[in-house]
Amino acid sequence: MRVRELFLYQFKNYAGNEFLFDQQIVCITGRNGSGKTNLLDAIYFLCFTKSYFVHSDAYCVMNEKAGMRIRALFETPQQQTVQCILRENGKKEFGLNGVLYTQLSKHIGHFPVVIITPDDTQLITEGSEVRRKFIDILISQLDEHYMRNLMKYNKILLQRNALLKRWPESVHKDFTVLDIYDQQLGELAAPIFMARKQYAEQLKFKTNQIYHTISDEKEDIEIAYHSQLLQHSLSELLIQNRHKDIMSQRSNYGIHKDDLLFTLHNMPLKTVASQGQRKSFLFGLKFAQYEILKENLVLSPLLLLDDIFEKLDEKRGRKLIAYIARQSTQVFITDTHKERLHKAFEHEGLNIQWIDL
Ligand SMILES: Nc1ncnc2c1ncn2[C@@H]1O[C@H](COP(=O)(O)OP(=O)(O)OP(=O)(O)O)[C@@H](O)[C@H]1O
Ligand SMILES: [Mg+2]
């Protein structure tokens, strides 16, 4: 799969720009703030129906403008056009080959993508939400029901929490509605839990494989899927803990509490890993995501590599380039230093397109 053309109108810092990509490896260089990351984000947006970096589509619209439009021509090898229009009133239209989607989640997985960015350190340092997002991004590209189930689950969870908040002052305690929410949550959580458990296992295996390839580390890093559902089904947990939920006025059990635990020598990676180990692990984790997608899908995922050579020592940089060079997928790489990228690729004999912003 290749992106051949990209058109951006009022998308972040791009007022109206068109790019043509004619190589498998596209190197994008430019000074800080020149729009390198935004360009990758536009490609990500068209694959995943939203920005990787900002929660709200509104932040993708150029400052002081109303609405934006982005479009890409993909070669899969058929020519396919993906377009997103955010109208001035905020209405979002997302289409494939001129046909608009009624549900955005239906698009996910058609054009698989993996993005690696400096922000990925959050996967180690931040709370569980970031790690759930990571595994959700992986599974939703492989399983068309996953994202829809997750969205339904989150919607019912919100309604259940709202009911629990109203509980103390409501005269009529609505146990029937609570029963319905609990039944629905139980049903929706089961396949999400199974998928996360299965892919966490694959991630552990592949991450370590890549971690050892790109660094000289010998020890394995443990990745454990942590879920309350490992011991009991959510339906059981909700029945057993109803009183607790009512007292605390929120839902204490469910897949919204899941986490991925990263440990080295039985201690949290966050506390014991060196900077270098962290960096190699994060590359391992992200390239594991890429390899799992590649093995399970017909199309090979796009790789969007933002600033990956920043702070990477020469030896690891070389190993990473060698890994990238072995892939048949299209790769977009950004860097502030053109010379550094030139130097990194000079011995690989690859066809590279250079874009200087
Ligand atoms: N909605 C928006 N409207 C206008 N400009 C925006 C918007 N969102 C971001 N920008 C600006 O776009 C510019 C380019 O940002 P981007 O993150 O792509 O730069 P970059 O080339 O990746 O820089 P760096 O090398 O520092 O990572 C920044 O100046 C940023 O403030
Ligand atoms: Mg950037």
The secondary-structure class comes to alpha/beta
Q: What general form does the structure show?
A: globular
Please state the second-level CATH architecture of the largest domain.
Up-down Bundle
* Tally of individual helices: 11
Beta-strand portion reads 15-25%
Mean pLDDT: 94
Low-pLDDT runs: none
- Fourth-level CATH superfamily of the largest domain: RecF/RecN/SMC, N-terminal domain
Bound molecules: adenosine-5'-triphosphate, magnesium ion
The radius of gyration over CA amounts to: 22 Å
Largest sheet features:
6 strands, antiparallel
CATH class of the largest domain: Mainly Alpha
N-to-C SSE string, H for helix and E for strand = EEEHEEEEEHHHHEHHEEHHEHEHE
| Fold-level CATH name of the largest domain | Glutathione S-transferase Yfyf (Class Pi), Chain A, domain 2
Number of domains: 2
- CA-CA gap between termini: 24 Å
Range of helix content? 40-55%
Description:
By secondary structure, the chain is α/β, with parallel strands linked by helices. The chain folds into 2 domains: 1-112 and 300-357, Rossmann fold (3-Layer(aba) Sandwich), CATH 3.40.50.300; 123-296, Glutathione S-transferase Yfyf (Class Pi), Chain A, domain 2, CATH 1.20.1050.90. It is built from 11 helices and 14 strands. Strands 2-1-4-5-6-7 form a 6-stranded antiparallel β-sheet, covered by helices on one side. Strands 8-12-13-3-14 form a 5-stranded parallel β-sheet, with helices on both faces. Strand 4 (68-75) and strand 5 form a beta hairpin. The radius of gyration is 22 Å and the shape is globular. The two termini are 24 Å apart. The structure holds adenosine-5'-triphosphate and magnesium ion. Magnesium ion binds next to helix 1.
